[in-house]
Amino acid sequence: MAAGVLATSLTLAAVAPVAAAEPAPPTGPGTSATAPRDDRGPADDGPQRWAPPLAGTTTGVEVTQGTARLSTGRDGTETGPAALRGAERQGLLDLGAHQFATPVNRIEAPVTGDVPPGTQVAVDVRGQGPDGQWTEWIPAAPGAPAILPEPTRTVAARLALIAPAGGTGPVVRSLEITADQVPTDARTIAPRASYRVFATREGLVGGTTANGHRIVANDQFAALPSRRALSPNGSGDYSVRVCAESGRCATVPIWDVGPWNTKDDYWNPADQREQWKDLPQGRPQAQAAFENKHNGGRDGFGRQVKNPAGIDLADGTFYGLGLKENAFVTVDYLWTARSAALGRAITGGAGPVVERTGADAAAADGGVVGDGAQVEVQCQIAGSSVEGSQGTSNLWLRTRPDHYVPAAWIQGAPPVPPCA
Question: Which of 70, 263, 313, 338 could form a disulfide with 318 if both were Cys (CB 3.0 to 4.6 A apart)?
């Protein structure tokens, strides 16, 4: 493992405060770094249009001769998120990002293709704010346009193909996105969502997550029961901080969907929740089914719920928290705090960054931050010098009271004040 990851090494650099790195331009699937521009005129000329080709990063989808359909492995097995344990087939096609001529917030996305009974085709869209952060993915269904929280010029889209296990899947031949701006209520900045939910161990080493990540031993990621917070592979656009009762925490990206449902964004207010709007915010449907026989004690697929899981943890995250069996944990849904300062851990797959109880590589190990995860940054302090993916620095960033990570492993953290 690289120095500074799990076993951070000291260097001879002078101990003095250094300026925080400027935010790096967003890169990767669905970001604005390569977003094509719309050369149309002003929005009062009518809706703006984007007809993305059926091309891009695929997970469980194959595109042949301009047609997208669910793929099947060479061994005849069907694709689907690992955390769902075969409950349904699901594939994603990332269509990238588009920059419109003027800001938009209402998105319609009619699709041309074949959708057999029992299957679904969904177009998920999200918008990028001036701080570079993305909204959650919002489905744009026929007759129900997606309404973004705020107007933006940069919109990303992805195609989701869904079918029952063993059934014939849908086929998509084309889609056209139309966008305009409609009046909405002013957006309020709410405190970060944080709830105590039941965590299970995902395991499934060798399987594939909903975003295409191949699960390896001691992996660092989590699964939530909704695509709305599914990060692109290798990205931590949607990350959580999971804390065990011992106080030890792990900050990891959301790379899978499950373990029970796929439309249960329980961290959102009930009126914004995609499904199970009768449940209070912060209560996963699986927990309500297990404890209170909600929906007859069954999940959205009709399966009898055998535990109240609201989050699934990869092996490395599960054991890194010191868990020996499934347990309740406290989860902070970091992307929901739009006013927070966020950076991204970049280790090149060398392992998680250690969160220490002091600004020193010799300080006690207080938790981990997985590769690619976004991490909340509160303030900065000078400490021991560390060599990492972002260079050599003696700057440490506080992530929570009395816990720090070396800035040398954190990309794009905005300037923050000195720690008091």
Answer: 313
Whichever domain contains 313, its CATH number is 2.40.40.10
Instruction: Tell me which residue of 418, 417, 410, 406 sits closest to 363, measured CA to CA.
Output: 406
pLDDT, residue 30, reads: 40
Distance CA 146, CA 140 (A): 5
d(CA 159, CA 172): 9
Amino acid at 214: R
What amino acid is encoded at 194 in this protein?
Answer: S
**Residue 179 above 90 pLDDT?**
yes
Rounded-to-integer distance, Cα 319 and Cα 306, Å? 22
293-352: per-residue pLDDT in tens?
Answer: 999 999 999 999 999 999 999 999 999 999 999 999 999 999 998 777 899 999 988 889
Q: Does residue 51 sit in helix, strand or coil?
A: coil
Where is the domain boundary, 122, 145, 180? 180
Looking up residue 161, the CATH number of its domain turns out to be 2.60.120
Instruction: Tell me the helix, strand and coil percentages in the chain, rounded to 5.
Output: 10, 40, 50
Compute how many other C-beta atoms are within 10 angstroms of the C-beta atom of residue 24: 15
Question: Domain boundary at 313, 336, 359, which?
Answer: 336
pLDDT digits (tens, 9 = 90+) for 123-171: 999 999 988 899 999 999 888 999 999 999 999 999 999 998 877 899 9
Range of the domain at 123: 32-180
- Both 205 and 232 in one domain: the answer is yes
pLDDT for 44-69, tens place per residue?
568 999 999 999 999 999 999 999 99
Contact predicate 1/220, CB 8 Å:
no
Structural domain includes residue 167: yes
Q: Do the beta carbons of residue 229 and residue 265 sit within 8 Å?
A: yes
CA separation for the pair 231, 215 (Å, rounded)? 15
Kindly report the pTM of this predicted structure. Answer: 0.87
